[in-house]
Specification:
Elements: H1 2-13, H2 22-29, H3 38-64, E1 76-83, E2 91-100, E3 108-111, H4 114-120, E4 130-140, E5 153-165, H5 178-197, H6 202-210, H7 218-226, H8 237-253, H9 258-275, H10 280-297, H11 304-318, H12 326-352, H13 359-383, E6 385-387, H14 390-415, H15 419-444, E7 450-452, H16 455-473, H17 483-490
Parallel strand pairs: 3-5
Antiparallel strand pairs: 1-2, 1-4, 2-3, 4-5, 6-7
Length: 491
Amino acid sequence: MALALGTGAAISHLNLHPLWLAPPLLAFLVPNGPSCRPVLKLVPLLLSLAAGYILVVSGRLEMNRDCRLHIPEGRSLEIDGLFVGPLVDGRGEVLPTRLHGSGCLERFRVIVPDRLLDLRVPAGRGRAGERVTLRGRWRRTPVLGPTSPIRAGYLLADSLSLAGSSVGTHAPARLGSHLRRRLVEGGGWVQRRLEDLFPRGAPLATALVWARKDRLSPEVREAFARAGTAHLLAISGFHVGVVGGLLLLVLGWTGTPHSTRFLLASLGVWVYVLAIGAPDAAVRAGAFLSFMALGRALNRSVAPLGAVAAAFLVFLALEPMALLRPGFQLSFAGAVGLLFGYQPLQRWISRRSKGMAPQFLCKGIGAGISATIATLPLVAWHFGRVSLVGIPLTLVVAPLVTLAIPGIFFSLVVSAVHPGLARFLASGVELVLEVISGFVAWVGALPFASVWVSEATLLSGTLAAGIAVLLLRHRPRRSGGELMPVAAMVL
C-alpha cells in the first residue's frame, strides 16, 4: 500500500493523466500467485493509488494558498518576531508574532544590509530566540521548487531593533501559533547555550543536535559533501535514537512501567523533532519509533519494514509535497536499504573474512554499504557527484559522532544545573568535534575524494546495474556464466 500510495503521488507530481494509474496497478497484481485472490488486493491498491494522486493535488492547492506566495513585490512590512536561528552575514529567519502590512504569520527570510548590520547589531547579538523588530520591503524571488514557500521572497530590512531574549516576556497582542513560539524560544535557548558551551565547535555541535547549519562555513559544508559524510550532519534515526535512549534511561531511573516508558519516550522524541523544525529524516525516525513503541505497549510484534511503510503512509498523507524533497527520498531509501541489505552483507563479509574481521567491523561495513547503495542514485541525481571515500571515512568518523552527540546532550542537561561542570564536560566534547572537522576537511581535500556524475552516466549506470542483478539471479550454470553480469556492467 505504501508503494501504491507513493506511485500515485509520483504520477501526480509529474502532471501525468490519471489513466497512468492503470499500468502500475497491473504491475502490482502480476506477482499474485494462482492461490491468491486478486480481488481482495485490488481494492486497497486502487484506493492507495488514487489517494496518492488526490493527496498531491490537494497539497498543491493548499501550498498555493500559502500567504508568503501572495505578498506583492515592494510591500512595506513591519515585523515583530523571534529569530529562528542566528543572524549570519546579515541573513536569517524570523517567526513573526505581529506583522503590520500583512496577516501572514509564517516564517520569513530576512536580509539585513551591511550598513545596518554594523550599526544596529553589536557583536554577540542577533542570536536564536532573540526578539527583533524589522521594517523593510518585500522582495519576491522565483520559487525554487513546489515545496519551498519560504523561498518565495524575503524582507530587505531598512530598520532593525533588538529586544533581547524572548524567554519570560509577555507575548504581543497578535501572536502566531503559541506552540510554535514556545518551540522557537526553547530552540533559541538551546542554540545560545551551545554557543556558550562550545566556543569553537558551536557550529558543528548545533548542526549535529539541532539541525541548524546556519553558522557552518561553506568550506566545512563542502568538505563534508566531498568526503561523503554530509549525512552525519543531518538529523537522522541515530540522533532520534540517542534522544529516545536518554529518555528511556531517565524514565527507567524513575521506576516508570516498561510499556509506559516507551510511550513517554516516544512523546518526548516528538517534542524534540518538532523543536528542531521537523526535518524529514527525523520525522521518519520518530514515526518509526512511535510504531515500535505502540507495538511494545500492546504486546505485539512489529515488523521493521511494516513500521517504515506505515511511517511512509502517515508522512505522505500529512505532507504529500514532501515526496519531491531530497531529504525525504534519501531518508526512506536509506532505511529500506538497511532493512534489506544490512544482514545479508554482514553475513557475506563475515564469511569472506573467515572470522578474522571483528563483528563490529562487519556490521559497520554492512550498514554503510547497504545504505550507500540504496541512496547512491539519489545523491548523484540531486547533487551531481558521488564520494569515493564515503564508506571508509564513515567507519572512522561515525564512532566519533556517536561519542559526540550524547556528550553534547549531556552537557546541555548539566548546564541547567551546574554550568561549571557543563563547561568542563563540553571541553572534552569540543576536542572530539575538532578531530571530526579536521579529519573530514583533510580527506575532503584529497583530489580523488569525489567525482562528478552526469545524468546520462547515472541513468546508464543504474540500467547496467539492474541488468547485472537480473543476470546474477538467472545466470546459466555452465562455465562462464558468472562473467555475464560483469559484461553487463562494462557495457
